[in-house]
UniProtKB/TrEMBL annotation:
Every RNA polymerase sigma-70 region domain range: 27-82
A GO molecular-function descriptor: sigma factor activity
The entry's keywords: DNA-binding, Sigma factor, Transcription, Transcription regulation
Species assigned in the record: Candidatus Pristimantibacillus lignocellulolyticus
GO BP annotations, alphabetical order: DNA-templated transcription initiation
Name of the featured protein: Sigma-70 family RNA polymerase sigma factor
Record-stated family: Belongs to the sigma-70 factor family. ECF subfamily.
Organismal lineage: Bacteria, Bacillati, Bacillota, Bacilli, Bacillales
SUPFAM superfamilies: Sigma2 domain of RNA polymerase sigma factors (SSF88946), Sigma3 and sigma4 domains of RNA polymerase sigma factors (SSF88659)
Pfam families from the UniProt entry: Sigma70_r2
Positions of transmembrane segments: none
Length: 185
């Protein structure tokens, strides 16, 4: 079923919308959650919570791109779950990702940095469109989808060291760009 048809089912409050969403995007939502969480039951819970959140969000929201809408919901739910679980256990791969980005982003410990978060997001998006497409895709796969270096290497047919060095250089460029734009890190 096409995305517009699925959204239409949500607008009609038809429970068929949930089944169609699961059939078309279940693996996608699980993949996003799996890259952040390490426990299978947490991943399944995240997937189901994504469907519930979509149900509650449509209406009033009308997603332009349904897959991106679901991906964002799944990612945010997985990040919330990760934060909840952090005291108990850690997903080593996701810890590495957070550590990699630490140097580029300010710590959200003040009201000012919370306010700047929207500006920083805008600047990061702008920065991503100033770099070549492959580098942008590598960056997004790593820091949005939380893919491992190994998986990214396979996806882009590159060596692990090439992926790591590209990401390292891109993070440095991002840090320099943010500093140039007046964001104190």
């Amino acid at each position: 079923m096409e995305d517009q048809g699925i959204v239409h089912l949500y607008l009609q409050r038809s429970q068929q919308a949930l089944l169609e969403t699961k059939n078309k995007y279940g693996a996608y939502c699980k993949a996003i959650a799996r890259n952040i969480l390490s426990n299978y039951s947490d991943i399944e819970e995240c997937e189901n919570d994504t469907y519930l959140a979509a149900w509650n969000a449509i209406p009033p929201n009308m997603p332009r791109k349904f897959s991106v809408f679901l991906g964002r919901i799944a990612r945010n739910i997985a990040l919330d779950k990760y934060g909840y679980n952090t005291a108990k256990k850690r997903n080593r791969e996701f810890e590495v990702i957070l550590t990699e980005l630490e140097e580029c982003l300010a710590s959200p410990n003040t009201v000012e940095t919370e306010y700047e978060a929207g500006e920083i997001a805008h600047l990061i998006n702008h920065f991503l469109y100033t770099i070549d497409e492959q580098t942008r895709n590598l960056f997004i796969r790593r820091y949005w989808y939380s893919d491992s270096i190994k998986n990214i290497s396979k996806m882009f047919n590159m060596s692990n060291s090439k992926v790591k060095s590209t990401l390292f250089r891109t993070r440095n460029k991002l840090r320099d760009y943010l500093l140039k734009e007046g964001i104190n890190l």
